[in-house]
Amino acid sequence: MTKIRDCNLMTVYESLFSAFGPQLWWPATGPEEMIIGALLTQNTNWKNVEKALSNLRRNNLLSFPYIIKTPLSQLEKMIKPAGYFRQKSQRLKALAETIVATGGLDSLDLLTTIELREWFLRQSGIGPETADSILLYAFKRPVFVIDAYTLRVCKRHNWLNDKDDYRKAQKFFIRKLPLKVNIFNEFHALLVQIGKNFCRTKKPLCQECPLEPFL
After folding, report:
1. Averaged over 80-98, what is the pLDDT?
2. What is the pTM of this model?
3. I need a labelling partner for 60 at 20 to 30 A (CA). Which of 11, 71, 117, 206 fits?
């Protein structure tokens, strides 16, 4: 069984911030674009999402009311670069319709964080990571987003057990960090940088990694 190693997560955060600087996440002009991007980024990389968002922007479709009015076939064509375009276009249309029918984002923002998270989890195609991303980046709620990069980094540094899941990892970060949106925002983005560039699945670059002192 893995022996859990204690760590000061604020020290880890400060080391990463010093190494990489601000990440300026989520790259969106507003909450609607952010939510659309969160749906499109599932099972693909961000470069493909950017192409799909660019198509939507060029056609003035980065708005839930316009998405509702757009024929499904046209929407599919716009988001095709993001992959799974038929499934994603259906889910995007359904989410846009539900949000507008509920009274829009301002109405949803009146919900507590727990209620808001549960609301998004009830929508088709939205799991914990997507829901928490929306809460953090679109609604500015202090919810830490856990992804595959974060789990990999934490488990390789023995901050978590190999079998620890999303919820346990999320509780770990919330317990050890100030409950501040800006810190949760930056930390998640910085861990993605580590996961992509150093803590790789194969051939991790541990000696070059800013987190090497924490091993």
Report:
1. 97
2. 0.95
3. 117
